[in-house]
Design brief:
This protein is an all-alpha fold. The protein is built from 8 helices and no strands. Helix 1 runs antiparallel to helix 2 (29-49) and helix 2 packs antiparallel against helix 3.
Length: 194
């Protein structure tokens, strides 16, 4: 069983890495978008293998479907001329960006794995007990996340909903057309104006 689990994990992680590289390095934006969908689906598969069913379903609903559809509409609404400018330019700024990214990756890797014996103190990780593991196996993670979300984290959850409502209202206000420039189709345009 461990061999099959490890094999599936290696296949999914290899797919995530290849598709993420495809998102960055493919020249056509549509191919990059398909590669992004494959990456999102592979990440959801890894979450399923980790018995994180709530996170896997959230990954599928929010990223693999929602964000992807928004990006496809954005691609469809942009002109074809912008597609030529998507390839990474061989410029000094590209080298600077690569060096900055590598430095940031090294810093994060060192902070996580540099002092591995004290990682429990850094992240305050308490391993779950046998009762909790059995409860997760029986009912899944959705019950635990739901209870925490609507008891201990109710205020941040509601504040997030207000923030999203404000963002939607802001988008409506920004995209609203000026009523002065609109012509009412019911009224006739006078000959003096036309």
């Amino acid at each position: 069983m461990d061999v099959v689990y490890s094999l599936f994990f290696l296949i999914l992680s290899f797919t995530v890495i290849l598709s993420a590289l495809g998102v960055v390095f493919l020249k056509k934006i549509v191919h990059s978008m398909v590669s992004l969908i494959i990456c999102f689906l592979s990440i959801a598969g890894i979450y399923i293998m980790l018995n994180a069913d709530f996170v896997a379903i959230s990954q599928l609903m929010i990223y693999a479907v929602g964000i992807t559809i928004i990006m496809i509409f954005a691609i469809m609404l942009t002109s074809r001329e912008s597609e030529k400018k998507l390839w990474i330019a061989l410029a000094p700024r590209t080298l600077f960006a690569l060096l900055t990214s590598a430095g940031l990756f090294a810093l994060i890797a060192y902070s996580v794995w540099g002092d591995i014996k004290n990682i429990k103190d850094i992240f305050n990780i308490n391993p779950p007990g046998i009762e909790m593991i059995e409860f997760i196996k029986q009912s899944g993670t959705s019950v635990i996340i739901g209870k925490q979300l609507f008891t201990n984290y109710l205020l941040p959850f509601e504040l997030l909903s207000v923030l999203l409502l404000a963002a939607i209202l802001g988008a409506v206000v920004l995209t609203k057309k000026d009523s002065d420039k609109l012509v009412n189709p019911i009224t006739e345009v006078s000959k003096e104006e036309g």
